[in-house]
Design a protein that fits this description.
Number of strands: 9
Order of helices and strands: EEEHEHEHEEEEH
Distance between the termini: 17 Å
Radius of gyration: 16 Å
Structural class: alpha/beta
CATH architecture: 3-Layer(aba) Sandwich
Helix content: 25-40%
Shape: globular
Number of helices: 4
């Protein structure tokens, strides 16, 4: 389990149009919002990522870079980026499932073609959203076992405004006896 205020696992992946992303070199002044998505086969992911695409400039204004990540190959990732009209949101591809698991993501098996008519990969990770500070420490996370009811990016922006103003620390860091 990842713990707030502690270092997150390594993550270095190729992106479609921005070279290699490496968690060890976060460019955002306040960190990176990493949105792990299921893949091209997921119509809910496309809708969710379209919202992140729309709000990426708002995150950038607050010093947070954004990245969409999946285990899909480059071709499927390009198709997803096209589907959501990606212009600002960066897309990384080829996430190894062992790395997904190290980040605490759940892994699912294929059920064939989805309602979007796209074949699911044999194995893929379920969604997760992480806000990681420039020092690689975890600030916030939400991990899901299903594609439904994901955290709202617009609510995250409002929370980020509060966090910045109040210098609010990451919470959930206690690991001692209870």
């Amino acid at each position: 389990m990842l713990i707030p205020r502690q270092k997150v696992p390594d993550l270095a992946l190729d992106t479609l149009a921005h070279g290699r992303f490496d968690i060890a070199a976060i460019a955002g002044e306040r960190g990176a919002l990493l949105c792990f998505y299921r893949g091209l086969h997921c119509p809910l992911c496309a809708k969710y990522l379209a919202e992140l695409e729309r709000l990426t400039p708002d995150f950038a204004e607050r010093g947070v870079e954004t990245l969409a990540i999946s285990s899909d190959d480059r071709e499927r990732t390009e198709a997803m980026a096209d589907k959501v009209g990606a212009d600002k949101l960066r897309f990384a591809y080829g996430l190894p499932l062992a790395t997904a698991r190290a980040w605490g993501l759940f892994i699912s098996t294929s059920r064939g073609k989805t309602s979007a008519g796209v074949e699911e990969p044999a194995l893929f990770s379920e969604p997760g959203v992480f806000l990681v500070r420039p020092d690689r420490s975890l600030y916030w996370s939400a991990v899901q076992t299903m594609p439904f009811a994901r955290p709202s990016f617009s609510e995250m922006l409002g929370a980020l405004d509060f966090v910045i103003k109040a210098e609010y620390p990451a919470r959930g860091e206690y690991t001692g006896p209870v």
